[in-house]
Protein backbone atom coordinates (compact mmCIF):
# COMPACT_ATOMS: atom_id res chain seq x y z
CA UNK A 1 0.00 0.00 0.00
CA UNK A 2 2.83 2.40 -0.80
CA UNK A 3 2.04 5.10 -3.33
CA UNK A 4 4.51 4.91 -6.23
CA UNK A 5 4.60 8.59 -7.12
CA UNK A 6 2.58 11.11 -9.10
CA UNK A 7 0.20 9.60 -11.66
CA UNK A 8 -1.24 12.70 -13.33
CA UNK A 9 -2.27 16.29 -12.73
CA UNK A 10 -5.55 17.66 -14.09
CA UNK A 11 -6.02 21.37 -14.73
CA UNK A 12 -8.54 23.74 -16.34
CA UNK A 13 -8.44 25.43 -19.73
CA UNK A 14 -11.02 27.71 -21.31
CA UNK A 15 -9.93 26.94 -24.87
CA UNK A 16 -9.07 23.39 -25.98
CA UNK A 17 -7.75 24.48 -29.39
CA UNK A 18 -5.23 26.97 -27.98
CA UNK A 19 -4.33 24.58 -25.20
CA UNK A 20 -3.59 21.81 -27.70
CA UNK A 21 -1.39 24.10 -29.78
CA UNK A 22 0.65 25.23 -26.78
CA UNK A 23 1.26 21.86 -25.16
CA UNK A 24 2.08 20.02 -28.38
CA UNK A 25 3.80 22.65 -30.53
CA UNK A 26 5.53 24.76 -27.84
CA UNK A 27 6.13 22.26 -25.03
CA UNK A 28 6.40 19.32 -27.41
CA UNK A 29 4.27 16.91 -25.38
CA UNK A 30 2.20 14.25 -27.10
CA UNK A 31 -1.59 14.32 -27.02
CA UNK A 32 -2.20 10.70 -26.03
CA UNK A 33 -5.96 10.90 -25.53
CA UNK A 34 -8.67 13.21 -26.84
CA UNK A 35 -11.78 12.33 -24.91
CA UNK A 36 -14.49 14.04 -22.86
CA UNK A 37 -14.97 14.96 -19.24
CA UNK A 38 -16.80 11.90 -17.95
CA UNK A 39 -18.77 14.11 -15.55
CA UNK A 40 -19.76 16.54 -18.33
CA UNK A 41 -19.51 14.99 -21.79
CA UNK A 42 -20.19 18.31 -23.54
CA UNK A 43 -16.54 19.36 -23.07
CA UNK A 44 -13.14 17.90 -23.90
CA UNK A 45 -10.69 16.20 -21.59
CA UNK A 46 -7.21 16.29 -23.13
CA UNK A 47 -4.25 14.17 -21.95
CA UNK A 48 -0.65 15.17 -22.77
CA UNK A 49 2.20 12.85 -21.88
CA UNK A 50 5.32 11.07 -23.11
CA UNK A 51 5.49 8.78 -26.16
CA UNK A 52 2.97 6.24 -24.81
CA UNK A 53 1.21 8.06 -21.99
CA UNK A 54 3.07 6.18 -19.28
CA UNK A 55 1.84 6.69 -15.69
CA UNK A 56 3.61 9.64 -14.12
CA UNK A 57 3.83 11.62 -17.37
CA UNK A 58 0.23 12.80 -17.87
CA UNK A 59 -0.80 16.44 -17.65
CA UNK A 60 -4.51 16.66 -18.42
CA UNK A 61 -6.97 19.49 -19.04
CA UNK A 62 -10.70 19.82 -18.62
CA UNK A 63 -12.09 22.36 -21.06
CA UNK A 64 -14.48 24.77 -19.33
CA UNK A 65 -15.21 27.41 -22.01
CA UNK A 66 -16.60 29.98 -19.59
CA UNK A 67 -13.91 29.54 -16.94
CA UNK A 68 -13.03 32.89 -15.41
CA UNK A 69 -9.76 34.28 -14.10
CA UNK A 70 -7.89 32.41 -11.36
CA UNK A 71 -7.35 34.39 -8.16
CA UNK A 72 -4.34 32.66 -6.64
CA UNK A 73 -4.37 31.72 -2.98
CA UNK A 74 -4.45 29.04 -0.33
CA UNK A 75 -5.87 25.53 -0.38
CA UNK A 76 -4.58 25.04 -3.90
CA UNK A 77 -2.16 23.13 -6.07
CA UNK A 78 -0.06 26.17 -6.87
CA UNK A 79 2.42 24.75 -9.33
CA UNK A 80 2.86 21.71 -11.53
CA UNK A 81 6.35 20.75 -12.61
CA UNK A 82 7.58 18.95 -15.70
CA UNK A 83 10.80 16.93 -15.75
CA UNK A 84 13.56 17.45 -18.32
CA UNK A 85 16.73 15.35 -18.57
CA UNK A 86 19.40 17.73 -17.28
CA UNK A 87 20.58 21.28 -16.70
CA UNK A 88 21.57 21.69 -20.37
CA UNK A 89 17.95 21.03 -21.31
CA UNK A 90 16.86 23.89 -19.06
CA UNK A 91 19.21 26.26 -20.88
CA UNK A 92 17.64 25.14 -24.15
CA UNK A 93 14.19 25.82 -22.70
CA UNK A 94 15.04 29.38 -21.73
CA UNK A 95 15.66 30.17 -25.38
CA UNK A 96 12.68 28.16 -26.61
CA UNK A 97 10.27 29.90 -24.26
CA UNK A 98 11.62 33.28 -25.30
CA UNK A 99 11.32 32.36 -28.98
CA UNK A 100 7.62 31.65 -28.37
CA UNK A 101 7.07 34.74 -26.21
CA UNK A 102 6.34 32.66 -23.11
CA UNK A 103 6.77 34.40 -19.77
CA UNK A 104 9.39 32.79 -17.51
CA UNK A 105 11.41 33.67 -14.40
CA UNK A 106 14.81 32.34 -15.45
CA UNK A 107 16.70 29.31 -14.17
CA UNK A 108 16.74 29.16 -10.38
CA UNK A 109 18.38 26.97 -7.75
CA UNK A 110 16.10 24.91 -5.52
CA UNK A 111 18.41 23.41 -2.91
CA UNK A 112 20.88 22.25 -5.56
CA UNK A 113 18.24 21.38 -8.17
CA UNK A 114 17.88 23.62 -11.23
CA UNK A 115 14.34 24.74 -12.07
CA UNK A 116 12.72 27.12 -14.56
CA UNK A 117 9.35 28.65 -13.57
CA UNK A 118 7.02 29.82 -16.35
CA UNK A 119 3.35 30.21 -17.25
CA UNK A 120 1.24 29.02 -20.15
CA UNK A 121 -1.04 31.29 -22.17
CA UNK A 122 -3.77 31.13 -19.50
CA UNK A 123 -1.53 31.68 -16.49
CA UNK A 124 -1.10 28.01 -15.58
CA UNK A 125 1.77 27.96 -13.06
CA UNK A 126 4.41 25.56 -14.35
CA UNK A 127 7.99 24.67 -13.54
CA UNK A 128 10.56 22.79 -15.59
CA UNK A 129 12.77 20.74 -13.28
CA UNK A 130 16.15 19.23 -14.14
CA UNK A 131 16.64 15.51 -13.49
CA UNK A 132 20.44 15.84 -13.68
CA UNK A 133 20.91 14.79 -10.04
CA UNK A 134 17.77 12.66 -9.74
CA UNK A 135 17.87 8.98 -8.83
CA UNK A 136 14.24 8.32 -7.95
CA UNK A 137 11.17 7.26 -9.92
CA UNK A 138 12.05 6.47 -13.51
CA UNK A 139 11.06 9.06 -16.11
CA UNK A 140 9.26 8.53 -19.41
CA UNK A 141 10.56 9.00 -22.93
CA UNK A 142 9.72 11.98 -25.18
CA UNK A 143 7.78 11.36 -28.37
CA UNK A 144 9.97 10.97 -31.46
CA UNK A 145 7.72 13.30 -33.49
CA UNK A 146 7.91 16.13 -30.98
CA UNK A 147 9.15 19.52 -32.26
CA UNK A 148 11.49 19.53 -29.25
CA UNK A 149 14.74 17.49 -29.58
CA UNK A 150 14.45 14.23 -27.64
CA UNK A 151 17.48 14.98 -25.48
CA UNK A 152 15.80 18.21 -24.34
CA UNK A 153 12.18 17.03 -24.18
CA UNK A 154 9.77 16.73 -21.28
CA UNK A 155 10.09 13.28 -19.71
CA UNK A 156 7.32 13.29 -17.11
CA UNK A 157 5.64 15.05 -14.25
CA UNK A 158 7.71 16.46 -11.44
CA UNK A 159 6.65 17.68 -8.00
CA UNK A 160 3.43 19.49 -7.24
CA UNK A 161 3.27 22.28 -4.70
CA UNK A 162 0.39 22.57 -2.24
CA UNK A 163 -0.20 26.04 -0.82
CA UNK A 164 -2.13 26.08 2.46
CA UNK A 165 -2.76 28.49 5.31
CA UNK A 166 -1.91 25.95 7.99
CA UNK A 167 0.39 23.09 7.02
CA UNK A 168 0.09 20.86 10.10
CA UNK A 169 -3.03 18.97 9.06
CA UNK A 170 -1.92 18.58 5.44
CA UNK A 171 1.53 17.32 6.47
CA UNK A 172 0.02 14.92 8.99
CA UNK A 173 -2.29 13.53 6.32
CA UNK A 174 0.52 13.10 3.80
CA UNK A 175 2.77 11.32 6.29
CA UNK A 176 0.48 9.46 8.67
CA UNK A 177 -2.27 8.44 6.25
CA UNK A 178 -0.73 8.37 2.76
CA UNK A 179 2.74 7.26 3.84
CA UNK A 180 4.87 10.13 2.55
CA UNK A 181 8.16 10.77 4.34
CA UNK A 182 10.29 13.84 5.09
CA UNK A 183 12.74 14.66 2.30
CA UNK A 184 14.22 18.20 2.45
CA UNK A 185 13.28 21.88 2.44
CA UNK A 186 14.19 25.12 0.69
CA UNK A 187 13.56 28.83 1.29
CA UNK A 188 10.31 30.38 0.17
CA UNK A 189 10.69 32.86 -2.71
CA UNK A 190 8.36 35.14 -0.73
CA UNK A 191 10.23 37.17 1.85
CA UNK A 192 9.13 36.50 5.42
CA UNK A 193 7.35 33.22 4.65
CA UNK A 194 8.34 29.82 6.12
CA UNK A 195 10.57 27.38 4.24
CA UNK A 196 8.82 25.08 1.78
CA UNK A 197 8.84 21.48 3.02
CA UNK A 198 9.33 18.53 0.66
CA UNK A 199 7.83 15.07 1.16
CA UNK A 200 8.33 12.00 -0.99
CA UNK A 201 6.86 8.55 -1.54
CA UNK A 202 7.85 5.35 -3.32
CA UNK A 203 11.33 5.53 -4.85
CA UNK A 204 11.38 9.27 -4.25
CA UNK A 205 12.91 11.89 -6.52
CA UNK A 206 11.25 14.38 -8.80
CA UNK A 207 8.47 11.99 -9.87
CA UNK A 208 7.32 11.32 -6.32
CA UNK A 209 7.44 14.60 -4.42
CA UNK A 210 4.89 16.95 -2.87
CA UNK A 211 6.06 20.40 -1.78
CA UNK A 212 4.05 22.08 0.99
CA UNK A 213 4.02 25.86 1.22
CA UNK A 214 2.45 27.65 4.18
CA UNK A 215 1.18 31.16 3.32
CA UNK A 216 -0.37 33.15 6.13
CA UNK A 217 -0.77 36.19 3.86
CA UNK A 218 -3.18 34.67 1.34
CA UNK A 219 -6.92 34.05 1.20
CA UNK A 220 -8.50 30.96 -0.34
CA UNK A 221 -7.84 30.51 -4.07
CA UNK A 222 -10.70 31.14 -6.49
CA UNK A 223 -10.04 28.70 -9.34
CA UNK A 224 -10.60 29.33 -13.02
CA UNK A 225 -8.72 28.92 -16.28
CA UNK A 226 -5.09 28.20 -15.52
CA UNK A 227 -5.79 26.55 -12.16
CA UNK A 228 -5.24 22.93 -11.13
CA UNK A 229 -8.24 20.73 -10.40
CA UNK A 230 -6.52 17.78 -8.69
CA UNK A 231 -3.40 15.66 -8.40
CA UNK A 232 -3.42 11.87 -8.69
CA UNK A 233 -0.97 9.45 -7.13
CA UNK A 234 -0.01 6.02 -8.50
CA UNK A 235 -1.13 2.70 -7.09
CA UNK A 236 -0.11 -0.63 -8.57
CA UNK A 237 -3.51 -2.17 -9.39
CA UNK A 238 -7.23 -2.28 -8.66
CA UNK A 239 -6.82 -4.65 -5.71
CA UNK A 240 -4.56 -2.18 -3.97
CA UNK A 241 -6.94 0.66 -4.82
CA UNK A 242 -9.75 -1.27 -3.13
CA UNK A 243 -7.61 -1.53 0.01
CA UNK A 244 -7.17 2.25 -0.01
CA UNK A 245 -10.96 2.63 -0.26
CA UNK A 246 -11.32 0.45 2.84
CA UNK A 247 -8.71 2.53 4.66
CA UNK A 248 -10.54 5.76 3.82
CA UNK A 249 -13.82 4.31 5.01
CA UNK A 250 -12.28 3.07 8.26
CA UNK A 251 -10.90 6.55 8.89
CA UNK A 252 -14.31 8.06 8.06
CA UNK A 253 -12.84 10.15 5.26
CA UNK A 254 -15.40 11.01 2.59
CA UNK A 255 -14.51 9.61 -0.81
CA UNK A 256 -15.91 8.77 -4.22
CA UNK A 257 -15.61 5.02 -3.94
CA UNK A 258 -13.98 3.20 -6.85
CA UNK A 259 -14.55 4.96 -10.18
CA UNK A 260 -13.97 3.32 -13.57
CA UNK A 261 -12.21 5.79 -15.89
CA UNK A 262 -11.57 2.95 -18.38
CA UNK A 263 -7.93 3.94 -18.95
CA UNK A 264 -7.33 3.59 -15.21
CA UNK A 265 -9.35 3.07 -12.03
CA UNK A 266 -9.71 5.96 -9.60
CA UNK A 267 -10.55 6.94 -6.04
CA UNK A 268 -11.12 10.58 -5.04
CA UNK A 269 -11.01 12.35 -1.66
CA UNK A 270 -9.90 15.64 -0.12
CA UNK A 271 -7.04 16.27 2.26
CA UNK A 272 -7.81 18.34 5.41
CA UNK A 273 -7.38 21.74 3.70
CA UNK A 274 -9.80 20.75 0.93
CA UNK A 275 -7.36 20.01 -1.92
CA UNK A 276 -8.67 17.23 -4.16
CA UNK A 277 -6.52 14.09 -4.33
CA UNK A 278 -6.98 11.04 -6.52
CA UNK A 279 -5.42 7.60 -6.38
CA UNK A 280 -5.18 5.95 -9.81
CA UNK A 281 -4.01 2.59 -11.08
CA UNK A 282 -1.12 2.29 -13.50
CA UNK A 283 -3.21 0.42 -16.05
CA UNK A 284 -4.73 -0.60 -18.33
CA UNK A 285 -3.43 2.51 -20.17
CA UNK A 286 -4.20 4.70 -23.17
CA UNK A 287 -3.50 2.09 -25.86
CA UNK A 288 -6.50 0.10 -24.64
CA UNK A 289 -8.78 1.48 -27.36
CA UNK A 290 -6.31 3.05 -29.84
CA UNK A 291 -3.19 1.94 -31.64
CA UNK A 292 -0.16 3.40 -29.90
CA UNK A 293 0.97 5.02 -33.18
CA UNK A 294 -2.32 6.91 -33.49
CA UNK A 295 -3.07 8.00 -29.95
CA UNK A 296 -5.07 11.20 -29.68
CA UNK A 297 -5.97 11.49 -33.37
CA UNK A 298 -9.71 11.00 -32.97
CA UNK A 299 -12.31 11.32 -30.23
CA UNK A 300 -11.96 8.33 -27.90
CA UNK A 301 -14.92 7.35 -25.76
CA UNK A 302 -15.03 4.66 -23.08
CA UNK A 303 -17.42 1.81 -23.98
CA UNK A 304 -20.02 3.10 -21.52
CA UNK A 305 -20.34 6.29 -23.62
CA UNK A 306 -20.26 4.77 -27.12
CA UNK A 307 -24.04 4.68 -27.45
CA UNK A 308 -24.00 8.47 -26.95
CA UNK A 309 -21.24 9.18 -29.51
CA UNK A 310 -23.41 11.00 -32.05
CA UNK A 311 -24.86 13.29 -29.38
CA UNK A 312 -21.49 13.89 -27.75
CA UNK A 313 -19.69 14.72 -31.01
CA UNK A 314 -22.46 17.14 -31.97
CA UNK A 315 -21.93 19.09 -28.72
CA UNK A 316 -18.16 19.52 -29.16
CA UNK A 317 -16.32 22.13 -31.21
CA UNK A 318 -14.17 20.43 -33.88
CA UNK A 319 -10.57 19.95 -32.77
CA UNK A 320 -8.13 18.63 -35.39
CA UNK A 321 -5.46 16.60 -33.58
CA UNK A 322 -4.34 14.30 -36.39
CA UNK A 323 -1.79 16.62 -37.97
CA UNK A 324 0.93 16.11 -35.33
CA UNK A 325 0.97 12.32 -35.84
CA UNK A 326 1.43 12.76 -39.60
CA UNK A 327 4.70 14.70 -39.29
TrEMBL record:
This is Ring-cleaving dioxygenase. PANTHER family: RING-CLEAVING DIOXYGENASE MHQA-RELATED, RING-CLEAVING DIOXYGENASE MHQE-RELATED. Coiled coil: none annotated. GO terms for molecular function: dioxygenase activity. InterPro entries: Extradiol_RC_dioxygenase, Glyas_Bleomycin-R_OHBP_Dase, Glyas_Fos-R_dOase_dom, VOC_core. Keywords: Dioxygenase, Oxidoreductase. Residues 5-131, 156-282 form the VOC domain.
Amino acid sequence: MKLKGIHHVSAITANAKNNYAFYTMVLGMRLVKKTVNQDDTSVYHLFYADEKGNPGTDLTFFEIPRAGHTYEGNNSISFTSLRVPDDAALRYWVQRLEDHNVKHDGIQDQNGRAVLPFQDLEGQRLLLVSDEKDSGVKAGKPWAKSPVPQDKGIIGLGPVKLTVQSKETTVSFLKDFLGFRDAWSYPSPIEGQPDIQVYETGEGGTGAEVHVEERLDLTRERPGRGSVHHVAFRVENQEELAEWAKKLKAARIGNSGLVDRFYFQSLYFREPNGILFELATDGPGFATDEDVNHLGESLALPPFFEDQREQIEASLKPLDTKEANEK
